[in-house]
TrEMBL record:
SUPFAM superfamilies: HD-domain/PDEase-like (SSF109604). Its EC number is 3.6.1.41. InterPro entries: Diverse_Catalytic_Enzymes (IPR051094), HD/PDEase_dom (IPR003607), HD_domain (IPR006674), YqeK (IPR005249). Residues 19-133 form the HD domain. It catalyses: P(1),P(4)-bis(5'-adenosyl) tetraphosphate + H2O = 2 ADP + 2 H(+). Pfam families: HD. It comes from Paenibacillus gansuensis. It is an enzyme of class 3 (hydrolase). This is bis(5'-nucleosyl)-tetraphosphatase (symmetrical). Keywords: Hydrolase, Iron, Metal-binding, Nucleotide-binding. GO terms for molecular function: bis(5'-nucleosyl)-tetraphosphatase (symmetrical) activity.
């Protein structure tokens, strides 16, 4: 409807064309995964549309939100790439009046993951890894696993991220380790 059109324009205005193409890819992949794994396609579409809303905000603006809105202060001592997810969840609440906590959580945790991820968390996070425009070492394996096993596919996505962070000498946010452990614990 109209509200979705308005949000689509507002999201597009927050980001360069390439990131908007990524967002459209995540929407398509998230709806497909929702169909495959019994998720809510409307929530998947909405969370995917909004997931990178704050991706291009200046660092100082994200930092201000983390401090003033009392988001987890621990974020400030990890990679700034993590910040747009919780900041984006706050921002879409403010900008669009989104109140659905499942949708907000899927946005909030789309980068880090978390322990005990919900189905919608997993769908959005995995769609972010496998949307058609993505290229990273291991993406084909993650796409293959995504056809048959949501948990193993997402764990493989986190493996790639963790390996990348280690190769750069960066710290790993604890929720990412918890997310991967939880996903692997769901196997046989
Ligand atoms: O926003 P996107 O580029 O679409 O993807 P994203 O939100 O999943 O962000 C991924 C980036 O975050 C990736 O380059 C790795 C970086 N990052 C930095 N520290 C961590 C982290 N990702 C995870 N999962 N955990 C971290 O500790
Ligand atoms: Fe993101
Ligand atoms: Fe991600
Ligand atoms: Fe993304």
């Amino acid at each position: 409807g109209n509200e979705r059109e308005r949000m689509m324009e507002a999201v597009q205005a927050q980001m360069p064309a390439k990131r908007w193409q990524h967002t459209l890819g995540v929407m398509a992949s998230a709806v497909e995964l929702a169909g495959r794994y019994g998720g809510d396609p409307e929530k998947a579409d909405l969370a995917a549309l909004l997931h990178d809303y704050a991706k291009y905000w200046p660092t100082d603006r994200m930092e201000r939100v983390i401090r003033e809105q009392k988001l987890p202060q621990e974020l400030l001592s990890y990679d700034k790439e993590l910040w747009h997810a919780p900041v984006g969840a706050y921002a879409v609440q403010q900008e669009f009046g989104i109140t659905d906590e499942e949708v907000l959580d899927a946005i909030r945790y789309h980068t880090s993951g978390r322990a005990n991820m919900t189905l919608l968390d997993k769908i959005v996070c995995l769609a972010d890894y496998i949307e058609p425009g993505r290229t990273f070492p291991g993406v084909e394996r993650v796409r293959e696993l995504a056809v048959t096993d949501l948990n193993l596919a997402l764990a493989a996505g986190f493996d790639s991220t963790i390996l990348f962070l280690i190769s750069k000498g960066k710290r790993i946010f604890p929720l990412t380790v918890e997310a991967r452990n939880g996903l692997l614990a769901m196997q046989g």
